[in-house]
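Most newcomers find our protein records easier to grasp once they have seen one. Nothing more is needed to start thinking about how sequence determines fold. Here is such a record, shown just as it appears in the course material:
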Amino acid sequence: MKKTDAAPVPLAIESLDQEGRGVAHRDGKVVFVEGALPGERVTASVYRSKRSFELAQVHTVLESAASRVVARCAYFGLCGGCALQHVDPATQIAVKQRVLEDALWHIGKVKADEVLSPIQGPGWGYRHRARFTVRDVPKKGGVLVGFHEKRSSYVADMLSCEVVPERISRLLPHLRELIGSLSIRQRLPQIELAIGEEAHVLVLRVLDPLSAADESAVRAFADAHGVYIYLQPRGPDTAVPFHPPLGADLHYALPEFDVRIYFGPTDFTQVNHEVNRVLVRRALRLLSPQEGERVADFFCGLGNFSLPIARSGAEVLGLEGSESLVARARVNAERNGLSARTRFEAMDLFKMDAARLAALGRFDAMLVDPPRDGAAGLVNALGEDAAPRIVYVACSPATLARDAGVLVHDKGYTLKAAGVVNMFPHTAHVESIALFER
């Protein structure tokens, strides 16, 4: 791929792609333009050129679209965390819905009988999980704490962030000062944020031990700002409380189902708690579990869906590849008084086949919530006696569409409904939920 430093070129923007970039054409090539919106005329600076397409950045907006708004964050355009702050919220949702529908049709050759209303929530301060990169950069005045710059491994020089809670945003300058004062500032590459209903946790990834002076500084910081500090010397499972020494009671609530989900600071959880509550409610409505039914929750994690399903009276088998998450799911079931209606087992679901699935027994309904790779093994393993209702929660439209194609064309299901879940406002990330029936 060739870099180009040519003068800005005039372009008419036709649409948005799934990364939130404007799409234009010139000289027989497709041009993807960061920061441009459909209906706009712009000049753009091309920074990569290949035979069939070019990548560009807006230089000047000559005619602005009605959907364009002023970005709220001072670092938008530099920071790579957000891609769509210049687009009004309604248009962001519409773009994501189009991405989902296009993927379902072009990849899976399926259309939903019903397009569900989008699930959405607060647009700002919603990230209850985040991972900040830390770098000591003397040329920029010392330690930087933030997300990566767009298209770069450099850390954005930022003093605030609009998508994390305001309290955490205000901490960024203080975190820079703290890390800059430590003897191991060049051996502390990241800080992970985990927020529960009653606690804010910062996990410091430490490649060397803290000195005595470092320990005193970190304790003083935790006390001054009311946060819990964990230290992580190696992989995620090595994170341990540092100060306060007993650690945090991290949990989030699903009050509609009288459920609390307890988690560790490096466990996978949904980043947007308010949207997650609506998502669980929607999933349960579509799944419609009944008392006495047997329901499978594939890729169950901590029990985010399993425990609300069990609260309905159904018996739930939760399956998950991570032993540590399975252990936490069992604890969550016990703490919520649902152990009698739940069973959690560790299983590599990417190696699912017909024999393994049959050994689990028959289910009245299934919930599937896989990572970005999707659930190809599982859907291909489904037999004639598979559950008549499947709710599929997806973080990738492409793999949902692929699996939907198998379910509809090979397994006899109908795609009854599908819609987007705006879990990550101002980003191009598209989550979705779909109901299959047969």
In short: The chain is about 25% helix and 30% strand.
